[in-house]
Amino acid sequence: MFPAVEAMEQLAADTCGRFPETDGRRLSDLRFDRFLRLDGPTPVAATNRVEKKDDGSLRAALTTRIQSKKTGIGRSLEHASLTVGQARSMDKALSLDVAASLAGICTAVEPERIYADMVPFGPAYRNICSDLLLSADGALAQVRSPQPPDPRNNLYLGSPYVLDAAFHAACVWCQRYLNNVAFPVSIDQRTVFRPTRLESVYTARIVPVQTEKEPFVFDIFIYDDESELCESAIGVGMRDVSGGRARPSRGFSEPAETDPLHSLADRVAGLVLLERKALAPFAAAALSEKEKRRLEPMTEQRAGAYLSARLALKRLSRMLGNSDDRRDVRQIETVAEDGRRPMCPRPDGGRAFCSVAHDRRFTLAAAAETPLGVDVEPLADKPLAAAHLYLHAEERARIEQSSLAPARAALQAWSAKEAAAKALGIDLAQAWERVCVCLLSEKESRLKTDDGRSLTAVHATVEGHLFTLLTEGENP
């Protein structure tokens, strides 16, 4: 099959060669209506049919001609078409914090599995070059051209392999969350800002737009390692082109369900969960100058936690406004004046109460109108062995009397006190002394401070981790 990305290259290059006054790197209304089969080494005669429109734009179509063996009557077949020139602008911006991170629980898929089972294309078109990351928020992929590079050095739109690999990422996303092997059949607008190079690696961010029915719609953004947007494909329409014959690998499809942290999210103004591995190589470009200065001396491990926390808080800040938040991500400061506490500015200039927590895998951030604390812990027995350090005697008795397994009860108590320290603005050691765990159940814990205030901690267990949100009062 002649790939859609090659059809775009041929049509754009030929049309702009014939009409050099047109802007061939801004394409619109792209359609891929019919496969162009390439059988063996025999060349296929194809024509670029160009029609000038009333608005001055050019409609280019890749066509072939066939002839009936019975009647001898010939007819033209249109395989791909696009508009070059004065098309209506549909450029969409993706904020850098969203471009550089993938929210939610992620699935990693190895390139070897993708090209063996999911997108079985030839060697030249296997160009997702590291684990593809998927979540309900979309996909994040490292993409490149085949190595050694394609010998062509005059590609008008840049490397066709980069966008093609981004299409593969969207296809795998459809298989995972929609149980559908979908491929691109249309693009509303493709804009090439900086042609991608054959020797470089890029980051593709795939954003689901409409996934209720075919054609499913995605926006695709491709960045270089300096966070510069190289090209975008807006309104990529995808559907099953196999007539139902192609099916996802057995056991791979897992439709997106209700947010596993909904019991926490329902109690606050906003909540963001990131996996630390789901950050783009250019994620640090989303930091303010102040945030960058704090990042510079950090070790790799600490820097990863710090960076994911900053991105989570910036995304959280946007959740507190409307969908048209145009703030420059570098102007969203997420470190308070004391250089220690997290900060979540609202779009109106105010500040929300916020809290952030992380472990080696996850970063969790939440915001509310009243003080709160969050915590995330891997499921482990260690808190039970150390219970004498952070629990009073009566609290340890409640651990033993709880309907929960002792290790789980101790972990919830530990996590609740971690969250309480953040909500109350005190040191963890102070929380051990001043906060008492009064009740432990599977999804909720009740606590009291030494001055009589009631606290409620809500718990959720996801992916072998305990997530905790604590707020003041008995009915947050």
TrEMBL record:
It comes from Desulfosarcina widdelii. PROSITE patterns: PKS_MFAS_DH (PS52019). SUPFAM superfamilies: 4'-phosphopantetheinyl transferase (SSF56214). This is PKS/mFAS DH domain-containing protein. Keywords: Transferase. Residues 1-91 are annotated as: N-terminal hotdog fold. GO terms for molecular function: holo-[acyl-carrier-protein] synthase activity; magnesium ion binding. Residues 106-247 are annotated as: C-terminal hotdog fold. Pfam families: ACPS (PF01648), PS-DH (PF14765). Residues 1-247 form the PKS/mFAS DH domain. InterPro entries: 4-PPantetheinyl_Trfase_dom (IPR008278), 4-PPantetheinyl_Trfase_dom_sf (IPR037143), PKS_dehydratase_sf (IPR042104), PKS_DH_C (IPR049551), PKS_mFAS_DH (IPR049900).
